[in-house]
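Worked example 3 (structure in, sequence out).
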């Protein structure tokens, strides 16, 4: 069974057999993020349609699922820039290098996603006697509902 929730495609088809779940950000999303970085690099500023805050959010989400902790240091110049960004300002060399690194980490020269699903093996080695405990959670926000917010486990 393959399902997408919270923007991540989860493959649960091998779970009942060997306690393996794989998860990946859809290639289209990774490619859109890579293309957004390319447009910022071409413009040499964040003055176009891609705002720094939006790009940082997309990068943090995409990087957490595609590269895990690898490459997080390259986000620091972008976080620093977010504190004092002037509209139309040219990219500083450190920001430009970070963007190039992040783009190349996410997509190849043709614009295709470089990432493959992460496999999560749940439970211990083969023959383990204890079954894993899985906790799924979700949150909601519906302003017109009698109870507009909630979280479930």
């Amino acid at each position: 069974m393959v399902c997408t929730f919270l923007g991540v495609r989860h493959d649960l088809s091998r779970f009942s057999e060997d306690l393996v779940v794989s998860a990946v950000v859809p290639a289209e999303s990774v490619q859109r993020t890579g293309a957004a970085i390319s447009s910022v690099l071409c413009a040499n500023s964040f003055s176009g349609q891609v705002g720094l805050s939006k790009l940082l959010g997309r990068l943090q989400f995409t990087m957490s699922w595609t590269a895990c902790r690898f490459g997080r240091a390259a986000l620091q110049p972008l976080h620093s820039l977010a504190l004092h960004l002037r509209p139309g300002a040219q990219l500083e060399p450190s920001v430009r290098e970070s963007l190039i690194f992040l783009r190349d980490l996410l997509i190849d020269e043709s614009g295709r996603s470089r990432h493959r699903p992460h496999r999560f093996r749940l439970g211990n080695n083969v023959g383990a006697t204890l079954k894993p405990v899985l906790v799924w959670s979700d949150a909601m926000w519906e302003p017109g509902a009698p109870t507009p917010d909630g979280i479930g486990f």
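Notes: The longest strand covers residues 20-24. The chain has a mean pLDDT of 84.
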